[in-house]
Amino acid sequence: MLQDFRSPFDATVVKLLKKAGAQISGKTNCDEFGMGSLNIHSLHGPVINPFRVDSRRAAGGSSGGSSAAVAAGLCDAALGTDTGGSIRLPASYCGVVGLKPSYGLVSRYGVVSYADSLDTVGVLAQDVERVEKVFECINKRDCNDPTSVDERLREKAHLLATKSIQRWSGESLKGLRIGIPQEYFPSELTSSSYHILASIRHLLSQLHSLGASIVPVSLPSTAYALSAYYVIASAEGSSCLSRYDGIQYGLRVPPSPESNFTSTSRTYSPSRSQGFGREVRKRILLGTYALSADAFDNYFLQAQRVRKMVRDDFDHVFSIPNVLYSKLSFEEKDANDHGEDGVDILIHPSAIRTAPRLDDVLDVSCDRDTLQDYVQDVLTVPASLSGLPAMSVPMRPDAGLNQPRDNQQSDENWPIGVSIVGQWGTDELVLKVGRVIERLSRR
């Protein structure tokens, strides 16, 4: 196995894997502190998508190195960290399976923090079976991690997910209700990405032919999720990275002799200016402003309100109750009776496009719209804000590195990912549906 730089060798997840017999062979490249969607903000340079190296396309980020290593066959599976889509997006670009588990199921102890309320350790592999095997190994309660969920809630969610699976488990999918959120097909999915929409439609047709019910649903707060995410993530990043001051942690750059040593900022600023990359400095400044006295109410608190609205949207459409926030006792709940009009899982595209060319995203000219770098997360951040399990499964899993294709530069010839999102704690259900989709896409 490989792991990204945010998961040190002494992290709990690494210890669990080694105890189970896994061989950790090294670390992979990632965006600095996980801040990025294309794996171009790294001291080690950008990660090149291995699907076709000579095309020089992005592997996605921030866990692009882990995704590329899996796609290139360098390991059986790899660890990654997902804050707003950093596993699912590179999985989609590279044509592998990427799982972001429910927040609180997998220990974050030992992981370098970016945004504590969002960071989640996940798994990337060539197929769902390997992802599931690794997830079962690291899905453990950890007393060293204050965000690790206790066994009582894990068991409640497991029983609810099992009841849902039992309704349709088998060759037929009759009883499985699949929600298609209309907000997850934004304007960015234009005619140039028609092949993504066509692939999703074909998949839904296959699922419907097996007996699954396809239900259109609405998650109206999705439109505000991306803005809220960047406020919250940047604010938490500003707080978490304040420890890297050049005194206790991080690079030490002595202030100039002319500096006023009675000023704390002048003592810290040389170390933080040289120790952090441009993207990290940008997000720290944004987060620091959001936490300032003048902006706190209008930005950070408002973003937290939007976060609750996003979570409430998910709870409204799912048939399975959210055991973290429900007021009823577990004995009063039954997955078969709760929300008869709700759905079991949601399905939508993992990304608004296939892997972009590195020459385009590395263009430093003023003509390039850098806002598009952040729009990549538009389909992945809602699940992160709500702490829900989400997995990207490739639509073309048989596409190999050496498989000849005509016009390899065409976007239509690059991997496409479809995301499966479930209620909190129903990771088993997400994995089960992922197996079905994987089997269908191999036909």
Automatic annotation (TrEMBL):
GO terms, biological process: glutaminyl-tRNAGln biosynthesis via transamidation; mitochondrial translation
PROSITE patterns tied to this protein: AMIDASES (PS00571)
Localization (cell): Mitochondrion
Catalysed reactions, as listed in the record: L-glutamyl-tRNA(Gln) + L-glutamine + ATP + H2O = L-glutaminyl-tRNA(Gln) + L-glutamate + ADP + phosphate + H(+)
Family annotation (InterPro entries): Amidase, Amidase_CS, Amidase_dom, AS_sf, GatA
EC class name: ligase
Active-site residues per Swiss-Prot or TrEMBL entry: 62, 86
Residue span(s) of domain Amidase: 2-431
Record key words, sorted: ATP-binding, Ligase, Mitochondrion, Nucleotide-binding, Protein biosynthesis
Any single Pfam family the record assigns to this protein: Amidase
A GO CC annotation given for this chain: mitochondrion
Signal peptide per UniProt: none
Summary of subunit composition and partner proteins: Subunit of the heterotrimeric GatCAB amidotransferase (AdT) complex, composed of A, B and C subunits.
Protein task: Allows the formation of correctly charged Gln-tRNA(Gln) through the transamidation of misacylated Glu-tRNA(Gln) in the mitochondria. The reaction takes place in the presence of glutamine and ATP through an activated gamma-phospho-Glu-tRNA(Gln).
Protein name: Glutamyl-tRNA(Gln) amidotransferase subunit A, mitochondrial
